[in-house]
Amino acid sequence: MATVSVLNMEGNEVGTMELNDAIFGVEVNEHLVHRAVVQQLANNRQGTQSAKTRSEVRGGGRKPWRQKGTGHARQGSIRAPQWKGGGVVFAPKPRDYSFKMNKKEKRAALKSALTSRVQEEKFIVLDELALDEIKTKKFVQIMKNLNVEKALVVLADGDINVVKSAANIPAVKTALTNSINVYDILKYNTVVTTKAAVAVIEEVYA
């Protein structure tokens, strides 16, 4: 089992913790990680873009000039794609970009992402993360103590003081153990969590 240091909010080591290899010590499957990221981004797309084809643009029902004898190239409509104000060739239409992944694939991708953070020593475990008031300045100081700038903070419960204190920090995102995903783990280069949150993750995903 991988062993990580447990820190307090001042950044000092107060103990160690063994991580479950079934979650934090798997073989990293880059293909599944890539598919999970692509799926999440694709599923987030609205797919509402739309443009008009030549048949949908208003006007252009009359042939602009006769076929022969004018010296102009032959034209059938002033709403053809080559005309200003004409339709769009292969115009984009509303569509659904989402696709599915198997549950086992999603879980394997998540385990791979968590394992990669542990291997890169970008997985920080705190003995606890609690604030007595909503104060962004205090949360920023905790991040400085941990020497972390861009972090995904994983919580076992939705501590309102912690969540709201981190809300105004652009490079920090808080998430509950049941809402973590591959994209966020990779986007925020450090995962900061608590012993309680690790226990929940090991219970849910083992």
Architecture overview:
There is one protein chain. The longest helix has 17 residues, at 103-119. Strand 1 (2-7) and strand 2 form a beta hairpin. The chain is an alpha/beta fold and 206 residues long. Helix 2 (30-44) packs across helix 3 (103-119) and helix 4 packs across helix 5. The chain has 7 helices and 6 strands; from the N terminus they run ββαααβαβαβαβα. Strands 2-1-3-6-4-5 form a 6-stranded mixed β-sheet, with helices on both faces. The model has no long low-confidence stretch (mean pLDDT 93). The relative contact order is 0.18. The protein is elongated, with a radius of gyration of 27 Å.
Secondary structure elements and their pairing?
Layout: E1 2-7, E2 13-19, H1 21-24, H2 30-44, H3 103-119, E3 123-126, H4 136-145, E4 151-155, H5 160-166, E5 172-176, H6 182-187, E6 190-194, H7 195-205
Helix pairs in contact: 2-3, 4-5
